[in-house]
Amino acid sequence: MPNVEYEEILYEGFGPGGVAVMVKCLTDNRDSTTANIHAIFNKYGGTLGESGSAGPLFVQKGLLVIAREHRQPGEDAVVMHALDAGAEDVVVNDGSFQVLTAPSTCETVKAELEELNYSFERAEVRWLPQNTVVVEGQYADKLLKMLDALDNDDLVQAVYHNFHIHDEVVARLG
């Protein structure tokens, strides 16, 4: 069997409603994958851009998500432990703590928190939007279909975007 070499490609573009989208793929055929991703963007009213077209709207960060549990230390202790382990920031939500790190320190921070018996719902390096775009109506419908098509593509490893669906749209989709 021939030796197949895969490469990681990060596509950048814009979906319906001006939403910035980045698509990480793993492929052994760059031309075929590019044509496929381009077709998905076009089908739903998006445009595949050049390298650097959407990227500046995102920042790469390590993301460790810790679920809130009743037996866990208090909020202040979780935040202190994360910051002492080298986290850049901790976002406190009703259901979780989102620990943000530099991409290069994500594994180190994770290991230090695991030593303190924390477990994670998610631990990854990902692209996070620097701001979000509210999408409504037909743009939201097309955008959700486009993102679903990208998610269902076998070569797509991850899809990052900066959209926020307006509450009315969520209720209608619910």
List key phrases describing it.
4-stranded antiparallel β-sheet; 174 residues; disordered C terminus; 10 strands; globular; single chain; alpha+beta; 5 helices
Summarize the structure.
With 174 residues, this protein is α+β, with helices and mostly antiparallel strands. The protein is 32% helix and 33% strand. The protein has helices spanning 30-43, 75-84, 106-115, 137-151, 167-173; strands at 7-14, 20-27, 47-48, 58-67, 89-92, 96-101, 122-129, 133-135, 156-161, 163-165.
Structural write-up:
By secondary structure, this protein is α+β, with helices and mostly antiparallel strands. The chain has five helices and ten strands; from the N terminus they run ββαββαββαββαββα. A four-stranded antiparallel β-sheet has the order 3-1-2-9, covered by helices on one side. The protein has a four-stranded antiparallel β-sheet with strand order 5-6-4-7, covered by helices on one side. The termini are far apart.
How would a crystallographer describe the biggest sheet? 4 strands, antiparallel
| Discrete helix count | 5
Please tell me the overall pLDDT: 89
N-to-C CA distance:
48 Å
Low-confidence stretches: 166-174
User: Total number of β-strand segments?
Assistant: 10
Strand order of the largest sheet: 3-1-2-9
Order of helices and strands: EEHEEHEEHEEHEEH
